[in-house]
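Q: Hi! First time doing this. I have a protein sequence and I read that you can turn it into a structure. Is that right? Here it is:
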Amino acid sequence: MVIREFVEQDWSQVWPIIQDVIRAQETFPYDPAMTPDAAYGMWAEAPPGRTVVAADGERVLGTAKMGTNRPGPGAHVSTASFMVAADARGQGVGTALCRDALTWARHQGYAGMQFNAVVESNRSAVDLYRREGFEVVGTVPGAFRHPTLGRVGLHVMYQEF
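A: Yes, that's right. Below is the predicted 3D structure, encoded as structure tokens:
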């Protein structure tokens, strides 16, 4: 598996991953009716942000986007989001993408990385982020409407560099 910069030709494989994740409504607070064009505009980060794919040969296994969490006085903190194809989960793709984003953010001179909305019932993501050095710094109770669990919390997670 190689992590490389996203190119427009990757979209035909990235969009189905995003579509699958947002339609499930279990892990991301994105509109499940989001169009491909809207998703592209949201996911394909413009510089100084960055979008990458994790690929095995020609196959895209997952994708990540990263950049500045907030402008102005908050611009010293980065953020990132990750999505992995359903049949590639549990194989280290998310871990590799997370590590790549952390390395990128450190090299860019950010003071830390913040995740604004990690669904607390998404145990694989929460556990991964904790293994990679993030802490839950707060939880907004009931802020995410899960399709089977009802309202669950959204964690704010942070790692200082």
